Amino acid sequence: MTKLWAGRTEAETAQLADDFNSSIAFDSRMYKEDITGSMAHAAMLGAKGIISQAEADTLITGLETILDDLRNGALQIDPKAEDIHMFVEQVLTARLGDVGKKLHTARSRNDQVALDFRLYLRGEIDELAELTKKLATVITDKAEQYKDAIMPGYTHLQRAQPVTFGHQLMAYAFMLLRDLDRLMDCRRRLNLSPIGCCALAGTTYDTDREMEARALGFDGIVLNSIDGVSDRDFAAELCAALSIEMMHLSRLSEELILWSSWEFQFIELPDAYTTGSSIMPQKKNPDMAELVRGKTGRVYGDLMGILTVLKGLPLAYNKDMQEDKEGVFDACDTAKMCLSVMAGMLPGMKARIDKMRKAASEGFINATDLADYLVTKGLPFRSAYKISGALVGKCIKEGKTLDTLSLEEYQQAEKLIEADVYEHIDLDTCVQKRASAGGTSVSSVEKQIDSVRRSLGQYHGEND
Hints:
Blueprint: H1 15-21, H2 24-27, H3 31-47, H4 53-72, H5 84-96, H6 109-145, E1 150-155, E2 158-164, H7 165-190, E3 192-193, H8 209-215, E4 220-221, H9 225-230, H10 233-259, E5 267-268, H11 287-310, H12 325-345, E6 350-351, H13 353-362, H14 367-376, H15 381-398, H16 407-413, H17 421-424, H18 427-432, H19 442-458
Parallel strand pairs: 3-4
Antiparallel strand pairs: 1-2, 5-6
């Protein structure tokens, strides 16, 4: 295939160099964006009289035909082409002759690839946002189902205070809301058109960049032509947002793995999202959660890759920037798959409420409530804390719990303790008393659920 940049040099490039230089293997996924952008460019060229309206109409029709042929399989992308941009233009020229050669007027591959990349990632962000909303909804629904199921809350992976399973799950719902905000922020900064920046310095033609931007759904144009072709902040920012989101999914995965283990037995994951062992028939392995946890590392790597590519580049365009796509594409593909798997797995997750409550009753996680009770009797908190700790120590030595200590034993430790202590340290009471904003009581969790659902509703149809 003849190279569109041929003319400056006489010798043919080596086949190895051609293979090394080619990006068609991965940028071909942007064919729709490339053709759509070219159609908008042709329309602008015709409207401004840079080419005739008849020529513009011919180009647009030819591009529409190529798009249809690629979609229905009548045309196959040539793997020998240098990139998707040259492939489309060469097919167009082969079909239309000299008219096809006019499409590239007043633009460069530099601004063309920047345009395609922004258009493609804008679509990816919209898809990622929908998947994030779906998972947040699934988690919120599951939290409502278990809003009153008592379990131990942990710090340092040690049983700390009683919480509800719904409260624990809602922490992840709020993480996903922040992930959604980051995606939308990234989309807003990305949604400026670079087309018309040309190679780096703009063009001598009387173009209308705003017309092209409006036609392609952009909010405006990049105002500096050098920045327009050299900026890849949006790609790095998207990888950063996805790295944080994958970190959240990885933390959730870790808890699902722990909770489903024989040591915890807090949950049972659906059979459809677990595997077995080749030699141990008793095993039910949480492989999907483990893979989500593992795939987080590759998204981190994608972020470091794009940051490293960009860190030392002089302005404006450099061929290094061809390395901007594979990592970002991988980050998007990986995050979409992980979000989809999580959203498919969690509806079938069952909480073993009895196991959760039993664990909550055995870890002295009502010790803080005992201290708070003593404060209500007039003791300073630090004194109450010391007495509560001493009673926990007594229980450990004697194989008891705070619930099974007799009133006489309590009063030996502190004469202010009365029979109402048992009500105050009851697990249900401990949970329901924590009705402060953001707390673990059922009423507080219900408010959190309502808040997340309202926030998710604000995003509904935003990018339709």
